[in-house]
Amino acid sequence: MLEIKGIYKTFNPGTVNEKRALNGLSLNLNDGDFVTVIGGNGAGKSTLLNAVAGVWPVDEGSILIDGANVARLAEHKRAKYIGRVFQDPMMGTAATMQIEENLALAARRGQRRGLKSGIAKAERERYREILKTLDLGLEDRLTSKVGLLSGGQRQALTLLMATLRKPKLLLLDEHTAALDPKTAAKVLDTTEKIVTRDSLTTLMITHNMKDAIAHGNRLIMMYDGRIVLDISGQEKKALTVEHLLEQFSRASGAEFASDRALLS
Asked: What's the CA dihedral at 186, 88, 172, 193 to 10 degrees?
């Protein structure tokens, strides 16, 4: 479903601030893979997701989604393939619009827009049933403005919107990092449920090593713009944080440098 071949990305080339963020990175995801991504500061995690999403073009290499090479497509043209949830809960929803209006926008994504207005009764019932799966009481607040919701509620809603029309690829960019631990756990459980139910091919960046181990069927660890560990199956199930750190040191020849991840 996702095939990345030898991508490079250098920021500010030829200047004193030159930084190679991706260094010949290659990665294949099969249909339905749920891959967690972890790495130290400056490892290239967010650069990888932004390259796949088309926020900026790569300098070299190819990115194929479901067989289509999107490496030279603009971000808005890749949107039909991708669902994305950002770290900031405020980014994925329209605060001044109602919950049902936000869901209606997501449901109509990629479709031709006509002059027909409003949300049909059957559509509203569908949204109510979908919102029930969050167990946040939002099914009884369809006409509430999204700006009145808490950060966790907005992030859960954003997740629903990103997956309402099953994307080829779901990108989760530390989507629980701004939430308190209890709310973050709730959003992660909801993520696991939706990804498993719909067999969504997913890349999830997290700063939390325990979450990276506990979720998904595969874990990749990045260092210096490349993948140094790719763990799946029984090996991943048996992982501990200590074992992961040991493997990282052996594979990279460096100590893991992320106080945020270690403290988590």
From this structure: 20
User: Regarding the domain with residue range 31-55+75-263, which homologous superfamily does it belong to in the CATH classification?
Assistant: P-loop containing nucleotide triphosphate hydrolases (3.40.50.300)
Instruction: With beta carbons less than 8 A apart as the criterion, state whether 98 and 143 touch.
Output: yes
Counting every residue written for the chain, the total comes to: 264
Kindly give, in sequence order, each residue whose CB lies less than 8 Å from that of residue 130, ignoring residues fewer than 6 positions away. Answer: 103, 160, 164
* Bridge partners, residue 227, by sequence: 222
Instruction: Give 121: exposed, middle or buried? Use CB within 10 Å, 0-12, 13-18, 19+.
Output: exposed
Q: Residue 159 — left, alpha, or beta (φ > 0 → left; ψ -120 to 50 → alpha)?
A: alpha
Residue among 10, 28, 4, 20 nearest 224 (CA): 20
DSSP reduced 3-state for 36: strand
Per-residue model confidence as pLDDT tens digits over 138-189: 999 999 999 999 999 999 999 999 999 899 999 999 999 988 888 889 899 9
Query: Rounded to whole angstroms, how far apart are CA atoms 39 and 225?
Result: 10
Q: What predicted TM-score, i.e. pTM, was given to this entire model?
A: 0.90
Q: Kindly list the domain boundaries of the chain, sorted by start residue.
A: 31-55+75-263
Residue-wise pLDDT tens digits, 85-137: 999 988 889 999 999 999 998 988 766 655 456 788 899 999 999 999 888 89
User: Checking DSSP bridges between strand 60-65 and strand 68-69, what pairing results, if any?
Assistant: antiparallel
> Rounded distance, CA 57 to CA 42, Å?
19
Reference 127, options 164, 170, 155, 72; nearest CA is 164
Q: What is the dihedral sign for C-alpha 102, 108, 113, 115? A: negative
The set of long-range contacts for 185-188, using a CB threshold of 8 Å and a minimum separation of 24, is: 186/152, 186/156, 187/152, 187/155, 187/156, 187/159, 188/215
